[in-house]
Amino acid sequence: MFYREAGQFKTNYADDMAIFPILQDKIGVAVIIAIAFIAVPLFGNSFFISAVMIPFLVYALATVGLNLLTGYTGLLSLGTAGFMGVGAFACYKLTTAFPGVNIIVWILISGFFSAAVGVFFGLPSLRIKGFYLAVTTLAAQFFLQWCFVRIPWLTNNNVSGAIEVPTRTLFGFAITGPNALPEVRYLVVLSIVTVMTLAAAHLVHGRIGRMWMAVRDMDIAAELMGIKLLQTKLLSFAVSSFYAGVAGALMVFLYLGSAEPDVFSIHISFLILFMVIIGGLGSLIGSFMGAAFIYILPIVLRYLPESLGFSVSPATVEHVNHMVIGALIIFFLIVEPHGLARLWQTAKQKLRTWPFPY
Amino acid sequence: MGSTGGAPGIARGSNQHKGDVLLGVENVSLRFGGVKAITDVSFDIRKGEIRAIIGPNGAGKTSMLNVINGFYNPQEGRITFRGKTRARMRPSVAAAQGIARTFQNVALFKGMSTLDNIMTGRTLKMHSGFFWQLLRHGPALREEIEHRRFVEEIIDFLEIEAIRKTPVGRLPYGLQKRVELGRALAMEPELLLLDEPMAGMNLEEKEDMCRFILDVNNQFGTTIALIEHDIGVVMDLSDRIVVLEYGRKIADGSPDEVKNNQKVIDAYLGVAH
């Protein structure tokens, strides 16, 4: 009823090719962005902002990155956490070596280091596909994690072997380090995630996105269109690792505040891959849905019994939590193997034709 | 070829003179281990003509197309395209030189819409840089709109306006074949290779496809090489026909010559030993 595009006539190609061609979508996205930028910092408490929203956004960014590689280009990777680690350690080295340069600049530049490493480990992708490629990226994951643990130079020879984030400021506000306010950190993370997601949307709607999807769907035909497979796949690895690197730097500098090398373990790689699959392969909005499902839902479930007035022991809650999440994952994969994004698409289609079935 | 600036160069009239050799195949042999797919085949394709390659199953027709667009590299022989001779090449290079093709079993990008599939055919003609792509602004957006206009002309031409936003995986087979033709046309090819464009179609769809093939040849002056099993279609459409059997060329000439060639009749009908 409210979601009808009837009467919205496109009179030029630019309007028709817009990222959000339907007016209601434009309004919806504007509302979500307004809530995220204004309502959340104003009304959210510091636990909600620093322990829910910031990590959610960081995971969503990493998921967007992996989705560009796995969902759009069809290349399976289990090295995401490794690439995130490269971003985090690069950012740490850069900001301690050149403290004068703004930390935002270093966070973004550390993505390039991660991209370079990603391209290197993406080289086998020309010959190796599917699960076998996942195994070769697993090598990246283990090798990079080994480096983080074994090379003390990366942590400036810190005896604890961990990164301790120094305080850095932007416009006089501390945005990293122990004194940074959650609201400030949140706004920084949100701005970076918003801009990078928009850039990703632009990429996948343009020539490069079509090249990636062509390689994913039918690489033989793609080659006949003049698409060079190796360059296209490596570009995807580079962009994806860039996103992972920035997400890693944000994770350490604006969320955790300090990081041991085992933060970037294989567990995180799997978690982000699950977010991509649950959210929907080849969907940016799905990346956010997947990250919310895997990261926020357990937190909600953990505090739900308490807020409803049940007194349940924390251990029981934790066990039930695991069972519920597991069951929900199976449920969603059976109902809609294409992820939450497809569910959302179907819902929109239903809304469009409501109250009629089609 | 038509430029992308200003009015798209899609209507070019058929002032092609058939005669110049566009593609020459000389003594090509292709082996897979001990299997001889093609043995010492020579023929040529002239500019502006419709050239058919026919033969019984397993005669090496598709292998021949794969050799022409660089998928397989023949062990012996040479291919000359637009005066340039080559021994080995990558398919992407063949595409850049102006060879497009469709596949026997449709090879569309299943997850993408009709529009995106055909837009992908324009990839080689698009040059805006990565950072403009990130912004989707300036040159990137201008280029996108320009090529969209061109693609819409192809969509018009193939009469697939109604399905432009439909994911191709959901389309019926006949339409998929048409979209695949559109994707090849979007490359503005000099030489278009069609591998069984009418396989699995009903009579009406076949007639449509024939019309499109003739129109492409007439309006755009595109040279076409096609493989087809429907002999009636082949005889009507093509200017000249090559007949292969067991990887060897057994006949070459106009439809009438081929029709009356005893070797061809034997190959198709069998011969008493």
UniProtKB/TrEMBL annotation, chain A:
<dbReference type="GO" id="GO:0005886">
    <property type="term" value="C:plasma membrane"/>
</dbReference>
<feature type="transmembrane region" description="Helical">
    <location>
        <begin position="49"/>
        <end position="68"/>
    </location>
</feature>
<dbReference type="GO" id="GO:0015658">
    <property type="term" value="F:branched-chain amino acid transmembrane transporter activity"/>
</dbReference>
<keyword id="KW-0472">Membrane</keyword>
<feature type="transmembrane region" description="Helical">
    <location>
        <begin position="130"/>
        <end position="151"/>
    </location>
</feature>
<feature type="transmembrane region" description="Helical">
    <location>
        <begin position="186"/>
        <end position="204"/>
    </location>
</feature>
<feature type="transmembrane region" description="Helical">
    <location>
        <begin position="27"/>
        <end position="43"/>
    </location>
</feature>
<dbReference type="InterPro" id="IPR043428">
    <property type="entry name" value="LivM-like"/>
</dbReference>
<dbReference type="InterPro" id="IPR001851">
    <property type="entry name" value="ABC_transp_permease"/>
</dbReference>
<feature type="transmembrane region" description="Helical">
    <location>
        <begin position="101"/>
        <end position="123"/>
    </location>
</feature>
<feature type="transmembrane region" description="Helical">
    <location>
        <begin position="324"/>
        <end position="344"/>
    </location>
</feature>
<keyword id="KW-0812">Transmembrane</keyword>
<keyword id="KW-1133">Transmembrane helix</keyword>
<keyword id="KW-1003">Cell membrane</keyword>
<dbReference type="Pfam" id="PF02653">
    <property type="entry name" value="BPD_transp_2"/>
</dbReference>
<protein>
    <submittedName>
        <fullName>Branched-chain amino acid transport system permease protein</fullName>
    </submittedName>
</protein>
<feature type="transmembrane region" description="Helical">
    <location>
        <begin position="234"/>
        <end position="257"/>
    </location>
</feature>
<feature type="transmembrane region" description="Helical">
    <location>
        <begin position="263"/>
        <end position="281"/>
    </location>
</feature>
<feature type="transmembrane region" description="Helical">
    <location>
        <begin position="288"/>
        <end position="304"/>
    </location>
</feature>
Automatic annotation (TrEMBL), chain B:
<dbReference type="Pfam" id="PF00005">
    <property type="entry name" value="ABC_tran"/>
</dbReference>
<keyword id="KW-0813">Transport</keyword>
<dbReference type="InterPro" id="IPR003439">
    <property type="entry name" value="ABC_transporter-like_ATP-bd"/>
</dbReference>
<dbReference type="InterPro" id="IPR032823">
    <property type="entry name" value="BCA_ABC_TP_C"/>
</dbReference>
<dbReference type="GO" id="GO:0005524">
    <property type="term" value="F:ATP binding"/>
</dbReference>
<dbReference type="InterPro" id="IPR003593">
    <property type="entry name" value="AAA+_ATPase"/>
</dbReference>
<feature type="domain" description="ABC transporter">
    <location>
        <begin position="23"/>
        <end position="271"/>
    </location>
</feature>
<dbReference type="InterPro" id="IPR027417">
    <property type="entry name" value="P-loop_NTPase"/>
</dbReference>
<dbReference type="GO" id="GO:0005886">
    <property type="term" value="C:plasma membrane"/>
</dbReference>
<dbReference type="InterPro" id="IPR051120">
    <property type="entry name" value="ABC_AA/LPS_Transport"/>
</dbReference>
<protein>
    <submittedName>
        <fullName>Branched-chain amino acid transport system ATP-binding protein</fullName>
    </submittedName>
</protein>
<dbReference type="GO" id="GO:0016887">
    <property type="term" value="F:ATP hydrolysis activity"/>
</dbReference>
<keyword id="KW-0547">Nucleotide-binding</keyword>
<keyword id="KW-0067">ATP-binding</keyword>
<dbReference type="Pfam" id="PF12399">
    <property type="entry name" value="BCA_ABC_TP_C"/>
</dbReference>
